Amino acid sequence: METHNADNVRNAGTTRAERQVHYLDNCVTTKLDDRVVKVMMPLLTEQFYVPEAHYAADEMQLYEQCMARVKRCLNCCEEDRVLFTSSGTESCNLVINSMLYIQKPTDRCHVITSQVEHPAVAKSCRFLQEKHAIPVTYLPTDCNGVVQPAELEKYIDAERTVLVSMTWIQHVTGVVQPVEELAHVAHAAGALFHLDACQVPGRMHIDFAACGADYMSLSAHKFGGPKGVGIVVARAGSQIFPLVHGAPATNLAGIAGTTTALELAVAQTEVGIPSMLSLRNELERGLVSIMLPDGHRCCRVVCADAPRRSPSHTFVHFSHRCVVQDTALLLRLLDERHGVLASAAHSSAAHKSASGVRFSLSWTTTAEDVQATVAALRHELGCV
Questions:
Q1: Among 241, 98, 80, which Cα is nearest to 165's?
Q2: Is 321 strand, coil or helix?
Q3: d(CA 19, CA 12)
Q4: pTM here?
């Protein structure tokens, strides 16, 4: 059997540009759509004025049109607010840190989130807890990685809880949380509800009016848009307090590109989701069919039995019997020898701690990408 070590990988001998790449890391970032680039380029080179300038009426009109188009994409009410930020992380921070000001005139000073949130939410809640002494409750999931509404009911305080913040699609396992039910519990106790929807566009249908959220956060580069742009949607009457004070220049090119990317993601959802789901199922069947020489399976799909999962996510935990025990080394082998790009990940869902590899698909993923990934793992793990 071939020896796997850092020297073998380092001497693979070709650069990524010289070989075919099979990109299965789309929940980290997605390829910027060519149609988005086409929209952005004139705003970077010709119509580069900031919309706030007195001579930039056309740019201001475009900016206002972008806000209206985002509302249409997400099925917002006319009175709902759309704010553009610099990232999904800033969007989540903006909402959560606004609770510092919302709770002051009241006795509400308690936040609830889950144990499986993205760092954008988890670290922002930790900041409130450690720097401002605001109590935060971190809800566990059930055996399938789902935050149950009954669990929220157990910990929410009708007199003290100001905000419940939950992810819609969990960024590692892809488990879809029951957000409508969770929002109902939050509102019944008089709390606000924030939804981290950064993983959702292009993977699930979004209806802001129906989902029950008071706030929703999005990240452009997760759905074919540019890096450096996020979105906050705030239901009419919900307060937002700025993180940054002053008059920063509006990133109109990024905003226009993000709006176009969101429209494209929404438009292809009907066709794209079945195709993506079919490829994800093919990937998972291929992965769990890989048998080690001793007859054991090489890996299992974490939270495979969840009631709903994103069609884009597959998180696998590898057996301790595998010849390659170092996840970082395995990822380097997949990259440098086979052009397969994925991520190391960790999940504490389902009352268990699991480390492994996360594969994430998008509307650009092909059957060839899936087949190459399964073949690469068979080769590197010395399996049959």
A1: 98
A2: coil
A3: 12
A4: 0.92
Question: Which among 115, 124, 220 has a CA at the least distance from the CA of 175?
Answer: 115
Torsion angle, alpha carbons of 353, 362, 304, 215, to 10: 70
**pLDDT value, residue 14:** 61
CA distances from 67 to 76, 84, 112, 296, 316 (A): 11, 9, 30, 53, 39
Can you tell me the distance from the alpha carbon of 319 to that of 322, in angstroms, rounded to the nearest whole number? 6
Residue 212 identity:
G
DSSP 212-250: --SEEEEEGGGTT--TT-EEEEE-TT-----SS-S-PPP
Query: Within 10 Å of residue 326's Cβ, how many Cβ atoms?
Result: 13
Torsion angle in degrees (nearest 10) through CA of 48, 216, 211, 236: -80
Position 370: which residue type? V
How many whole angstroms separate alpha carbon 58 and alpha carbon 377?
A: 53
pLDDT of residue 2: 39
Q: Measured in whole angstroms, how far is the alpha carbon of residue 67 from the centre of its chain?
A: 22
**pLDDT at residue 292, as a whole number:** 81
